[in-house]
Design brief:
36% of the residues lie in helices and 24% in strands. The chain is of the alpha+beta class. The chain folds into three domains: 2-143, DNA ligase i, domain 1 (Orthogonal Bundle); 205-400, DNA ligase/mRNA capping enzyme (D-amino Acid Aminotransferase, Chain A, domain 1, 2-Layer Sandwich), CATH 3.30.470.30; 404-528, OB fold (Dihydrolipoamide Acetyltransferase, E2P), CATH 2.40.50.140. The strands form five sheets. Strands 4, 5, 6, 7, 8, 9 and 10 form a seven-stranded mixed beta sheet that branches. Strands 14, 15, 16, 17, 18, 19 and 22 form a seven-stranded antiparallel beta sheet that branches.
Length: 529
Amino acid sequence: MQRFARLFEALDQTTKTTAKVSALTDYFLEAPKPDRLWTIALLSHKRPKRSVNTTLLRTWASEVAGLPLWLFEESYHIVGDLAEAIALVLPKPQTSSTRSLSEWIGMLIKLTNDDEETKKKFIISAWAELDHRERFIFNKVITGGFRVGVSQKLVTRALSKATGINENMLTHRLMGNWTPMDTTYDALILQPLDNEDDSKPYPFYLAYALDLDFDQLGPVGQWQAEYKWDGIRGQLICRNSSLYLWSRGEDLMTARFPEFGPLATTLPHGTVIDGEILPFKDDNPMSFQHLQTRIGRKNVPKKIMNNTPVILMCYDLIEHDGKDIRQRPLQERRILLESLLEGHPENILRLSPVVPFSDWLALDGIRQNARQLHSEGLMLKRLHSEYKNGRKRGDWWKWKIDPLTIDAVLLYAQQGHGRRANLFTDYTFAVWHGDNLVPFAKAYSGLTDQEFLEITKYVRENTLERFGPVRAVVPNLVFELAFEGIQASTRHKSGVALRFPRMHRWRKDKHPKEANTLQDLKDILDSYG
């Protein structure tokens, strides 16, 4: 644990990519293999199942620290991070520990089915032999909130330096439904690709938001335009008469979408299609809200399948007849994809339509009307482009429609977390319904640090009521909120739910009475929902 704690500190104290890769490389060369495996898992968001809930952790920490629970809770809200708050209030350790990261995690996993008293005894004894830095890591692992500024790409790069294995091969090996409980470091990292599981997906190729002028893109004849859909990016894999469906987040979703199962016998062996899982009914995409009714389920009842049928909007073909064709140009892969889909009914596999255009301005007009088709905008792909790994600039661009906006009044504020723990950065906004303000959205991004400081000062000086960490404030501040979509919702008092709301700007020029109304929101819903 001491070695891993030093690694975490090194990663947390720098923003330089080279320094992070160097720290990771040294760790992968020195640490025991079980610790290397768990480190890869933690940095890949493959955390062990939570063995102790946070309510118990807060209670036990307050007891050990000799603090009343209310005082610990207030301290937690100021610190903004439970793992750190616990590590700060606990007394100094009585002994030291030489247990490794993998040993501690193994003990936590075994704790899952124990009774509360056994869990309490173990956690308190662990705190007693870990120093502040180790306690923080230990608490992070327990709560499942382990995060550090390291991408999967940096982990892969460091592993490549430590092992001498090509980065692309390692990226491929790290994808999939593995956990440290069912594999080893050697099997995961050192095993040749020839022995890979048939279910393995390819790394996804991701696009950058378009930030170039039209003249920098070059002739329109070099590009293919498609609609950008709001679903779940996925890879449909058919190998040896078995079918697998992976999300971009490396989640195996085959059981959640059983409609695709019959394709195992109709698609050729060695077929991998990149596309978008979309809720689709009456020849039109449905909202992402409908898809959410299926995301968290391992088994989907027929009623939900009937209410929310899905398709795969097929973008690309990246394996054909068992051969990796990612290096071939897009226009060739597109021809092969079209040929493949000719023999399949459109009720489950649909070819992403190419958007014809004669010049960039005409395409911009098409983009601006994309919301009418329940699309997020356009994708631009260079016809000669390969299918690359990860987010690369130059050949694939996403060109989203301008967001919807509405002016709203700040009603509630809550302190943030981490470096924002001393600032009020998490806000609840409301619109007018007659003479009353109705809450309808929460947002915490989009403003500058200076603006957050100003608002924090306002919140502290204009608090009307406190509800735990939440403060009701005098409703005088108006903000323009931007959002990507809107749906009807029975779960919200306002009757609507926004997709990706964020603060576009602080409208210091507006009086709160000039903010929008609930009817304005419903009008937007009628137009675009």
